[in-house]
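I had to read the description of the data format several times before I understood it. Each protein is reduced to its one-letter sequence and a matching series of backbone shape codes. The format is easy to grasp once an entry is in front of the reader. For illustration, here is how one protein appears when written out as sequence plus structure tokens:
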Amino acid sequence: MTKQRNSPQKKEHEEMTARHLTNTDTSKMSEPEFRIMIIRILAGVENRLESFSAEIKEVKNSQNEIKNAITELQSQMDAAVARMDEAEQRISDREDKLMENKEAEKKREMKAKEHNLRIREISDSLKRNIRIIWVPEEEEREIGVETLCEQIIGENFPNLGKDTDIKIQEAQRTPIRFNKNRPSTRHIIVKFTKYSGKERIMKAPREKKSLTYKGRQIRFAADLSTETWQARKEWYKDSINKSQKQQRLERTREHYQKLQLYKHHNVNIHIFQYSL
């Protein structure tokens, strides 16, 4: 309900009446006139007080409206910040879930590669072949590769040289260098007549510190296929990359958490300053 305020003309009239009455010589007034003057003065003062009271009340109402508007704005901003935090949390959860799915998929791929590698290694281990590495290529020119391999076995394992199970079926150099980027000698692939002979030859070097031929160091190795060597290389490379990616992922998550904390802190400061 709207209250009636005194008009400017009415205020001016009351002020002029009060000044006129106060400037009047009261000594010449009769008692009834004096009483009427006092009543008029008090009435004017009362009207002014009522006017001031109404104005003060209106100002207070305006202040309350402003406070209510600020409170409502604060609530809206708090709700907006809460929705932003919720949306960011959902995005973060989905990103984490996506990363977990990717990591799980990569783990499955790594497991599959590892299983395939083991299958290849088992398949290669069932072969009767071995590789002899670092033997100079000119050694077999006069005696042949098979005789050269027999001499190498006899020189390094005298007790096995006469074993009837250790018989070489065939031996030959690899057609191309094992590592094209390194100027190394071609490997000698030796195939035994029995699998047991190959196994005994592969176990024997473990008891010796080194293998030599005419004073030169050589090495016996399993005859793994090119696919197995490549699979080993890829598996090792994937393991290294996985470790590096995991470290980068951890650093990214830490940076994202710090950024979220910084953004939330700045929003709170802005709201606090606005409310002041």
